[in-house]
Amino acid sequence: MSNEVVSGGGGGCTSIVWFRRDLRIEDNPALAAAVRVGAVVPLFIWAPEEEGHYYPGRVSRWWLKQSLAHLDSSFKSLGTSLITKRSTDSVSSLIDVVKSTGATHLFFNHLYDPLSLVRDQRAKEILTDLGIIVRSFNADLLYEPWEINDDHGHPFTTFTEFWNKCLNMPYDPAAPTLPPKRIISGDVLQCSCDKLIFENETEKGSNALLARAWSPGWSNADKALTAFISGPLIEYSVNCRKADSATTSFLSPHLHFGELSVRKVFHLLRIKQMLWANEGNTTGEESVNLFLKSIGLREYSRYINFNHPYTHEKPLLGHLKFFPWVVDENYFKVWRLGRTGYPLVDAGMRELWATGWLHDRIRVVVASFFVKVLQLPWRWGMKYFWDTLLDADLESDALGWQYISGSLPDSRALDRIDNPQFEGYKFDPNGEYVRRWLPELARLPTEWIHHPWNAPEPVLQAAGVELGMNYPLPILEIGSAKDRLQESLAEMWQLEAASRAAIENGTEEGLGDSSDSAPIAFPQDIMDVDHEPARNVNTNAFARRHQDQMVPSMTSSFLRNSDESSSEHRESYENSRQEVPQEPLRETLNQRSPPTFRHNNSPPQFNINMGLRNVEDIAESSSISRSTRGGGVVPIWCPSSSSSSEQFVVEENDTESSSSYLQRHQHTNELIDWRRLSRAR
DNA sequence: GGTGAATTCAG
DNA sequence: TGAATTCAC
């Protein structure tokens, strides 16, 4: 079945190419495969309800809209057009399109976020059952997550090791391919197209400005890449630490939507690298290495997510679950508004809400302030980034926030607090960035721009700054934040030790194991919904029959856990493993009978109206932030979540799969024993 | 040119 | 904060 090789040559077969975050025609393996088979029906399904909380934010939807229009016009010039469907269930929409076009094949490219892993596996199974030949490909990564392992076949747990391995693989990432010259159109006229609505009237106004700064779409992405590589790249290593830097590539939104192939980026970078190495241009070489590293972090985010598909919800290091987060919605509001009293933080937050963009360094600054100074739960910050960033990307953002909050073995030191005042002089030495985003401080001399609270009164007066009036005093003093952090960490270690002792004594079943404790709910004001009426997901026969969703087996944790696993399990794993990469079609996601779960009927909550707003909007919405929605807002990626929340239940009649699923989660609930690795206090 | 101080920077 | 590297003498 999945080993079957498609016979090429356009023998009257029609293939659906299901586009998701691979909105390009160049170096798109799914599209290329479809073109080889015969007629093509390009399809995009807009089913944001499937994303749960992670309904795309306003700017992200704006980008998607432009990108799809661009893709459609490319298809039109090649002889077909993009079919668009509005849906609450991608799989049933796929079936509709199969039926109306008489397609025999379905091709798509892999995604690695947890929801997609489940949905895609389900799509594969259901459509295969219907006699459709389904193939999926790697279009998003240099190497598939399961290709990168240490000498023992285990996945890496630190970035540096992972990336070294990637850079020293015995084979290169697949070379990028050219776009097809011509496409034989499938019977797209037989298929009704839904008009997709990505913005409401109020959002349109705010979105208008975006088009001045950004050009979504795959061929624009390509131009941006070429321009970056032939221009600012060489200076990347010297400039990349300045908040205002013109050396940023600005490629991340293009990469998020797959308008750009990382493999193409990689190949072009490698060429430059060789060139500069030959010329002895060390700055250039260093720049390439540094930029490659950021590509590597993106790879790593998918890798981590694939191996631990709850990283957007749970810390990877076990002890973090004992950290006493400060659940203070007022702090959260002040941070979002850019009114913390620390100019660099505030400038960043205002830039983010005004433009949907933030320089990488400044993301670290504001996130670090959020987690270490305010001690707010990192998932809130991640959610806000998700809602506001143009390049919002679940895997990358989860990795970033976990890094900042000390939840990874190679995170920043837990007890380290960066002082925004010093960071200010580092990343914005002349205060230009702060002056641009904080007009109330514009006239303050550079000497005081990053610490106005120390400025002499006459200086403040001359600059028209009234602390506490038109610019706030620091919300918290850094020194006391440090003390508070120490206390919190002490408490965390104490609780962790108690829990460990309890487990070792066998007295308690893992006191407070994070898989059983509901995560802190998001505050209401970022969760308020204003979405299209949800359609009933379970109305059609297929959805009802296949209510149970599936996740592809996570190869690594399965193997790593092999001492506890039965040989039967391992065998089935090994067998499936062998069917993974195929030439010329690289069939991928492992097919070993996957674990199943079912989710209950509570409709997912999402957030559509939280995009960029003006100050009044935010202030207004946060005034209702007190009333917290009871519990059930957070989807939890574990079999035994609290009953009030959206929940996944292990299917009992499927012993093999459920046991492997549990096994995987038992393993991950040990949280890698990374706690030992990261004892750094 | 060797040594401690200062600085840089962190996946 | 701490290791690594550069700087000043």
UniProtKB/TrEMBL annotation:
One of its GO terms (cellular component) is cytoplasm. The keyword Zinc-finger does not apply. Binds 1 FAD per subunit. Its cofactor is (6R)-5,10-methylene-5,6,7,8-tetrahydrofolate; FAD. Coiled coil: none annotated. GO terms for molecular function: blue light photoreceptor activity; deoxyribodipyrimidine photo-lyase activity; DNA binding; FAD binding. It holds the Pfam family FAD_binding_7. Residues 561-577 have a biased composition (Basic and acidic residues). Gene3D superfamilies: 1.25.40.80, DNA Cyclobutane Dipyrimidine Photolyase, subunit A, domain 3, HUPs. The keyword Transport does not apply. NCBIfam families: crypt_chrom_pln. This is Cryptochrome-1. It comes from Thalictrum thalictroides. The lineage of its organism: Eukaryota, Viridiplantae, Streptophyta, Embryophyta, Tracheophyta.
